[in-house]
Predict the structure.
Amino acid sequence: MNYRQWERASEWPLAGSALTFLAIYTWTVLSQPTGTGAQVAEYAIIAIWALFGIDYLVRLALAEQRARWFVRHLHELAVVALPVLRPLRLLRLLTLVSLLQRSIGGALRGRVVTYAVAGTLLLVFVASLAMFDAERAEPAATIKTFPDALWWAIATVTTVGYGDFSPSTATGRFIAVGLMVAGIALLGVVTATLASWLVQKVAEQDDANQTATQQQVAELTSQIAALRIELASRSEGLGTAASTTPNSAGRIDTH
């Protein structure tokens, strides 16, 4: 099995594992299970985390240029190696968004918008869970409920930042930094996509105008050519008539 075959074979199992991870993580954060439920959830999260680790190692082994692949996928190594970043593995769910491309076509702009929107929604939800989990036990924290965490995440990712809610723990601030960076990246993607769309529309309009101008020039050229032919034929007719006019003696000069 080569690298591409492994990616195609593992894409949906890993996406399903990521969905399961999201469900378990959401349940543990919102319900705070204890006893057997908490242990089962922890074992399931560890198992899913191990699956992503195995996937990383297999892809590294199958890569044709391992050193280059390793450098280009350092972020995946960090996500697998550092437990604090495990929720970031939920970004693997973006593979599910590829199904939406069938309805939006294969244009690069459509894929960028789709991934940006889906990634942002997922990031806001996961950041809200992580922030709520990090802040609710802190006495001085202002984020005490999940709706408060969700409102904070939306205000942060859109770079509004009302300031009514803010993290007070080191983990919460780390999450906030990541969400701020994601918000700036999102605005950049949206702005670039809009600018690209406007440039395309202007270019299409210019092409249409140029095509219309070329057609008009071609029509004028053909009309001028027809007029020249008509004038030339009339000139020849006038010359022939002049050469056959009778002289004063009543004879016709044939010249």
